[in-house]
């Protein structure tokens, strides 16, 4: 992390976990543990939990985010939620392009770009996910793939709008598998992402960009990962569902 240049952000991605009642309980357990955080703290919950999470987080330093949004404002898109709907609730953050959305629900680089555009137009902060599969890493094309995903997703995004984007590097092979990229591997790709942003928008914008690592960061490895200069926080999966584990990661990012 380099807090002189950019914010550190720890965001929990709850995935398909927790009922509204359980969401309230978890947020209330996390809040006192992170009240003095030296980084931004976000909890991204399932749609049905958003209202409960907002209520539980009121008056705390925890922001609430959603896990996805559609690219249209309204229409015949059964099961989808628009950015405007989220904003009307008071939701400020949204995850776009998570590897599970790409892997299981047909997200493409193009639909990720459209969803990113819609969220920005609605005034939201986007946590934009990019990353490679194991076979792609083994083929030696991580750099090309992550650069392409980043460039496509940022298509049409202005330098001013870039301030409302956080990029999360998620090696797909390290999500929910117990495998974690080494701190050096994580930093290498986070720096690559920053270099792509510099190529598109200039060094000043790249230096100000928060780039998270999102592959099985946990209480045990957070210190080492966050000590790297280009790792500015984490998009936390499983560990975000345990108050003390999540708080330990926030503590590591607060140093």
Number of domains: 1
CATH class: Alpha Beta
Mean pLDDT: 96
Query: How much strand?
Result: 5-15%
What is the approximate shape? globular
Low-confidence stretches: none
* Rg from alpha-carbon coordinates: 17 Å
Strand order of the largest sheet: 7-6-5-4-3-2-1-8
Q: Give me the CATH architecture, please.
A: Alpha-Beta Barrel
Helix coverage percent:
40-55%
Write the layout of secondary structure elements.
Layout: E1 9-13, H1 20-34, E2 40-45, H2 50-57, E3 62-66, H3 83-89, E4 93-96, H4 99-104, H5 109-121, E5 125-130, H6 134-138, H7 142-153, E6 165-169, H8 183-201, H9 203-208, E7 211-213, H10 222-226, E8 233-236, H11 243-253
Parallel strand pairs: 1-2, 1-8, 2-3, 3-4, 4-5, 5-6, 6-7
Describe, in plain words, how this protein is organized in 3D.
The model has no long low-confidence stretch (mean pLDDT 96). The longest helix is centred in the last third of the chain and has 19 residues, at 183-201. Helix content is 42%, strand content 15%. The chain has helices at 20-34, 50-57, 83-89, 99-104, 109-121, 134-138, 142-153, 183-201, 203-208, 222-226, 243-253, and strands spanning 9-13, 40-45, 62-66, 93-96, 125-130, 165-169, 211-213, 233-236. It has an eight-stranded parallel beta sheet with strand order 7-6-5-4-3-2-1-8. The protein is of the alpha/beta class and 255 residues long. The chain has a single domain, classed as Aldolase class I (TIM Barrel, Alpha-Beta Barrel). The chain is built from eleven helices and eight strands.
